[in-house]
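Give me the fold.
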Amino acid sequence: MPILLLATYRASTQFNTHPLSHATTTQIMLNDFTPKQARRLIQERLGTDQLPSVLEQRLGLRDRQGRESAVNPLFLEESLQMMLSLNVVAVDQSKYGDGRLRIDEARLSQMHVSDTIYTLLLSRLDQLPAAERGLLQVASVIGREFDLATLVAISPGLSRETAVELLQALMEADLVQQLSAGLLPNYLFQHNLIHQVVYQSLTYARRQALHANIAEHIIRQAGTCCPRSIRCWLTILARQISIGRV
């Protein structure tokens, strides 16, 4: 039976692309958005692609001299999300279903939009409520993919119900997504870069302490699992010890 496998990766000197050079594989390079592609995304999000030049400049569609420029898709998405969350940009829906774009020029002039993805994501993290930010930071130490049970187990004083509520808010903010529900819900950071930024926002000592807590939790869990599950837990344990040097 034919199988189609799709995979994404970030090009680097450590990544071996030789297996992808066979005739049965096709590589598709994802480049920055052209201004036309960027405006298509804006049209989908805001209902219009007719934006003032100053707003286009803040979103990366124009350079400092006002010339059109290619823009990183993640940067554009996160910039839009930040402006919407701060009510700098809003769409007033009419009873006919169409929307009118409203821009708070005073807030826009005072708003600092970072010119790099890393600092932009860090700014979004700083604007989160303390409880949501703290939960996200703990989750980042578990990994880009994390489960609710481990998150609650290594977070003293955090109930399962509170964790679910905080995760729901983080999903609404497009920072994480739920992979599976049921008794053992799993979650995933929306982007690998978001995971990296959140993880690096923790102090080294805090990361070390959390890695140690996760390792202890895994050891306790492994003692009650079947041999196949134990092998899986040991793999995760090795990763925590390797990264955290616990």
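The beta strands are 89-93, 99-103, 145-147, 176-180, 186-189.
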